[in-house]
Design brief:
The protein has eight helices and two strands. It is mainly alpha-helical. Strand 1 and strand 2 form a beta hairpin.
């Protein structure tokens, strides 16, 4: 017995809607656990920088015009600690936003993937986001640098990450269009540039 056309159309629309929903929920190349590890490692690097940041902030406060107006040293220490606490929370927020944007770019544009086990893997966006944040904060903590942005080597390093990281996924370039390769490098440079705000 033939089914009414309306029933067939309704079933088809439901199946297509379900397919679109599955595509929308499709995970990106990088497993969520790797994003959490990257965020945690970078925050450890930020916390390791606190001693150098504390000295820098305290020195700037003492050399400013406000130093003579603050007679109570405990209030000065409180101001420094509050400033550092706010800086840490702001960094946490900016890192979360940056990694979220990197995941979105990776899911929609930088879709190449390398496996790290049976079920888990990581993508180009993850590699760029991690290399542009964690090593920078860790190196700043090791060398006692309050802000890596004061050095030109930092910007050169970020540019090198954007230029070299795509070659780790060159196996995905087998026969791609030249436009796709250009797009990959363009988004890699853009994503690395976004890390300068973190």
């Amino acid at each position: 017995m033939a089914l009414p056309a309306t029933v067939v159309e309704a079933a088809g629309s439901r199946s297509s809607a379900g397919e679109r929903a599955r595509r929308a929920r499709k995970p990106g190349p990088t497993s969520r656990v790797f994003w959490l590890i990257a965020y945690g490692l970078t925050m450890v690097g930020v916390l390791l920088r606190l001693p150098a940041l504390h000295e820098t902030v305290r020195h700037r406060l003492q050399s400013s015009d406000m130093a003579g107006k603050v007679e109570d040293k405990s209030m000065e220490a409180l101001a420094v600690n509050v400033g550092l606490l706010l800086a840490v929370f702001l960094t946490m927020l900016l890192l979360a936003v940056f990694y979220s944007l990197a995941a979105v770019v990776e899911r929609n544009v930088l879709t190449m993937r390398r496996r790290a086990g049976r079920k888990r893997g990581f993508g180009l966006g993850y590699v760029i986001a991690l290399l542009c944040t964690f090593p920078v904060h860790l190196a700043s903590a090791v060398f006692g640098v309050s802000s890596p942005k004061t050095s030109g080597w930092y910007y050169l390093y970020v540019l090198l990450v954007a230029g070299i990281a795509p070659f780790l996924f060159r196996t995905a370039w087998n026969g791609p269009e030249r436009r796709k390769i250009i797009t990959t490098f363009a988004f890699a440079v853009g994503l690395a540039g976004l890390s300068l705000a973190v």
